[in-house]
Structures are given as structure tokens and as C-alpha cells.
Specification:
nucleotide-binding, Ribosomal Protein S5, domain 2, GHMP kinase N-terminal domain-containing protein, Alpha-Beta Plaits, alpha+beta, GHMP_kinase_C_dom
């Protein structure tokens, strides 16, 4: 067996999260600002692997016979607990590396499903398919989670966006979703009503995006956050970033479960003022890198 190396990207939800867990719809895209990288080396031990990599190894072994010993090591600069899909990126990079080393060819769907299996069944994370579908295809996607359908959208239709990242890590996504999932499983009508509202919201946002109607897209992003806030408790740092964006004329919503906010500026002249105030509050502002750099 030869050494192998693989990567996976973080993702940003434009509209639709967290309805993917509940059979909703979503729009989301990968970004190239950071990466999770996993190295497979037959010459090193697996003894010191973190639980996440051990779980990825176990799931891979259920799909393909592992003949030789190897170790997995990782490097990831994806911000921790920022709602950017960092854990799923690390799992996916590990599965890709093991696939390369063993001559196992993933389809995007089998890779996404295996990643979700690692997280749900072996790590106990409450999660939906959105992150994994985007990360497996590495495309800007419209996704229907009840119909199991995706459509690749032109990423150059996205308007000017920023990602704001708190200096304090957000909460683990599983702990964020657990109480809502419990209510959903009991048939709570409020949960169903809110989750049902995401489907038409995503379609409205998709139509607006493709038509270049940035004002309506911004309204959809704001509405996405309000729907979430009607069910989930919003972390103080997350709410502060949302408020900061709105003070400067930006639509804003969480990128994922918390720790990072996606901002769409309706008045671009406000970008510099927003960035100055954010820096003073210890908030990092990043322009999403939508394309891979050509070296």
C-alpha cells in the first residue's frame, strides 16, 4: 500500500439550514479559504488516532476489506465549532484518503452517506445531509432532502458576501439540535410548522438569486435567521454578529449551527465600516473564496 493524501472543504449554507435534518430544502456552497487534510501512511501506527478518524476507519472497513496496517494523521485550518462543517470535512477527507489507498472509487452520494454514518452512528452527532452533499460534490447546490435531489447552480450568481467568525467557538452542533430533534420526534406542531416554512423560502431565494434580485435574496436570508431564532436559542456572540451586520445594512444568518455568520451587504459602501467595527469586537471577517486558486 502506498501513502495517500486527500482533502475536504468547509461549506456555507445560504438558505435552508437547519431544515436538512427534517426533510427540507437548502442552498449552499463550499469555500476554499480553509481545508481539512488527511494523510494515510502505512509506516505509522494507528494507536494515537483521534476518535473521529477511528470511526471513519471503522465505517470504511465495513465497505472495503483493509489488508494492511496504516495510520491516519490530519491537518485542518477550518475554524473550530464555527458551523462551517469542519468535522464532516475531516471525516470525508479521511474516507477519501482510505479510498485512494485501497483503489476504492466513491460516488459523491456514497461518500456523503458514509460521512453521515460516521457522524451519526459512531460519534453520536445529530446532523443532516446538507454539509456532506455540498462537500462531496464541491459545488454550489440546490438540495431537496425529502426527494433526495440536487441541482448544481452557477456559483458566479452569488452576490458579494462575507463570513464573520466569532473569537469564541460556538456550541457543538449535536448539542444545538438535540432538544429540537426531541420535540420533532414527539410530533410538536410548532417544529413542523417552522420546518415546513423553509421549503418555499428556499425556492423564493433560488428564484431571486438566478434572477439577480439581491434585495429579495437578502430578505430570504434574514427570514431564515428569524425562523431559526423562533425555535433555537441563539448564542450571545452569534446574535451580536447578526446585530452588527444589520446595523450596517447587511442581511445576515448563521452559516451553520453557530460560531459564524454569513452577511450579504445591500449597500457595499458599508463593508469597510462593518469590518472596522467587527475587528474592534474581535470578530474575523473573511471574503468567501469560491474558486480554487490556480498555482
Amino acid at each position: 500500500m502506498k501513502p495517500a493524501f486527500a482533502t475536504a472543504l468547509p461549506r456555507v449554507s445560504l438558505i435552508g439550514n437547519p431544515s436538512d435534518i427534517y426533510g427540507g430544502c437548502g442552498l449552499g456552497f463550499p469555500i476554499w479559504n480553509w481545508q481539512a487534510k488527511v494523510f494515510l501512511d502505512p509506516s505509522i501506527s494507528s494507536a494515537e488516532e483521534m476518535p473521529l478518524l477511528q470511526a471513519a476507519r471503522l465505517v470504511f472497513s465495513q465497505l472495503h476489506f483493509i489488508k494492511e496496517e496504516f495510520g491516519l494523521r490530519f491537518i485542518s485550518d477550518i475554524p473550530l465549532q464555527a458551523g462551517l462543517g469542519g468535522s464532516s470535512a475531516l471525516v470525508m477527507a479521511a474516507l477519501r484518503a482510505m479510498g485512494k489507498a485501497h483503489g476504492f472509487q466513491w460516488t459523491w452520494r456514497s461518500l456523503a452517506d458514509a460521512t453521515l454514518t460516521v457522524e451519526q452512528e459512531h460519534l453520536g452527532i445529530i446532523a443532516g445531509p446538507m454539509d456532506r452533499w455540498i462537500q462531496a460534490q464541491e459545488e454550489f447546490l440546490w438540495m431537496d432532502f425529502s426527494g433526495n435531489k440536487t441541482e448544481v447552480l452557477p456559483i458566479n450568481t452569488l452576490p458579494s458576501l462575507r463570513v464573520l467568525i466569532s473569537s469564541k467557538p460556538g456550541r457543538p452542533s449535536g448539542s444545538v439540535h438535540a432538544p429540537i430533534m426531541e420535540r420533532w420526534s414527539r410530533g410538536d406542531p410548532q417544529i413542523k410548522r417552522v420546518m415546513d416554512a423553509y421549503r418555499p423560502l428556499v425556492e423564493q431565494g433560488r428564484v431571486a438569486l438566478l434572477a439577480g434580485d439581491i434585495s429579495t435574496l437578502a430578505e430570504c436570508m434574514d427570514r431564515n435567521f428569524e425562523l431559526r431564532a423562533s425555535l433555537f436559542s441563539i448564542h450571545e456572540e452569534d446574535q451580536a454578529m447578526i446585530n452588527l451586520c444589520r446595523r450596517h445594512g447587511s442581511a445576515a444568518k448563521l452559516c451553520g449551527s453557530g460560531g459564524a455568520v454569513l452577511a450579504l451587504m445591500k449597500c457595499k459602501e458599508e463593508w469597510s465600516a462593518l469590518e472596522v467595527e467587527a475587528k474592534g469586537a474581535g470578530i474575523t471577517v473573511v471574503e468567501p473564496q469560491l474558486f480554487k486558486e490556480v498555482s
